[in-house]
Amino acid sequence: MSVSGRAQVSRMMFGDTSRTGVSFAKDPHVVNFKERYLMYYTIRPKKENPNTGMGIGIASSKDLINWTKAGEITPARDAPYEKNGLCAPGALVRDGKVHLFYQTYGNREKDAICHAVSTDGINFDRNPTNPIFRPTGDWNCGRAIDAEVCEFKGRYFLYFATRDKDFKIQMLGVATAPLSTGFNREDWIQAADSSVLYPVYPWEGECIEAASITVQDGKMYMFYAGAYNNWPQQIGVAVSEDGITWKRLFKEPFLPNGKPGEWNESESGHPHIFTDMDGRTCLFYQGNNDKGKTWYLSQKEVYWKNGLPAFEKE
User: Fold this and answer.
1) Range of the domain at 132
2) Closest Cα partner for 132 from 185, 88, 191?
3) End-to-end alpha carbon distance in the chain
4) Residue 12: inside a domain
5) Quick check: is 15 in a domain?
6) Percent above pLDDT 70 for the chain
7) Residue 168: which CATH number?
8) Is residue 77 very low, low, confident or very high in pLDDT (cuts 50, 70, 90)?
9) What is the pLDDT of residue 2?
10) Which of 81, 75, 79, 71 is nearest to 118 (CA)?
11) Which of 72, 88, 134, 149 can pair with 112 through a Cys bridge, CB separation 3.0 to 4.6 Å?
């Protein structure tokens, strides 16, 4: 199944109210798996029991517009590293299985990237080597969140957000593993001893996070979030030929926050650039207009011309 022939005539607007009665869905990531689309996203703790911690919701769709909740991933009792919560999923499909990469939550400098695998996209088995990655070096505080794993030029690249030693500036780092990897901890090697993307433009504030990759014409294109939530957070794009050295395509946001009164007035953030099986791309992102009291997910199709992304076909 693909989006071929699908006319984008209505806006996707998805919110999960199942845990608190108020819409909360953040950090989207979509895969095409077994004749349907699956979207993984962050959900709040349950209203009646805040100690349940953050979790990951799962929704399914046939058209990338209309979504139905299909499951949840909650902290495992036998996984002390995620007892405070888990969130910010990233996923890929390999050999008929969904590999999910997610972060622990609520541990500040000790938050790390974990891995789980599923044959149905709903029920996951944790990697026994979890957490599989935390960065090292004087340039960061040891934290890793917002995982994105993708294949490029014979390796898997793991992009993550971390912070400086003062826990003030958020930035991106990268690690790599061989194609034969089981995504275990011992397979990941930090590929750069510094940030690969650091906030520099005013709209990026003190934060670059939520890297998401699509490969077009032999190059990596990274859609990333600039600035912390509701500053407003907005979405930029960078390009790389080796996965390590990145060049921004635009000085201004590719997808800005909405105008006053619009649903995403407070931010357009945490992108996922989904590449379907037919090569078409859709940019999923989160937004709200109340400074984070609620959160919704939406998407827009992205077209490519002369090595540049655009929301208009021509």
Assistant:
1) 26-309
2) 185
3) 25
4) no
5) no
6) 96
7) 2.115.10.20
8) confident
9) 34
10) 71
11) 134
